[in-house]
Amino acid sequence: MNDQSQYEATVRDNPDETRFDVFVDDTHAGFSVYKDIGETQRIFYHTVVFEEFGGRGLAGTLTRTALSTSVQAGHRIVAVCPYVKKWLTTHHDFDDATDPVGREHVRALR
Fold it and tell me: Domain span at residue 85?
């Protein structure tokens, strides 16, 4: 059951670790890692919600907040992470802020 009223999910940018962290109450529940390319592009390449927090919709909450925060900060989104890539196929409010994955993005992650 996805009853978010039983807990409080919080997402915070953690630039020192180049990731967004999601917390349930005060417990770290997962993260989405990014790499900035130049001044404008942000590659999201790995998203994890820890097993004990699965089934609560946290990956979607994490992704929406991470992308919204990034776009508001002037970044364009490059989705290498399979979860973020799939999420974007059903959340079209980010279409205008998303760039396709190119060779330069794959090289930047090596």
Answer: 4-108
Enumerate residues 6+ apart whose C-beta is below 8 A from 52. Answer: none
H-assigned helices in the chain: 58-72, 82-88, 103-108
**pLDDT value at position 7?**
80
pTM above 0.85, yes or no: yes
Secondary structure (3-state) at 23? strand
Q: Can you tell me the distance from the alpha carbon of 23 to that of 31, in angstroms, rounded to the nearest whole number?
A: 9
Number of separate domains in the chain: 1
Looking only at the bridges linking them, the beta strands covering 76-79 and 41-49 are parallel
At 73-88, the pLDDT tens digits run 999 999 999 999 999 9
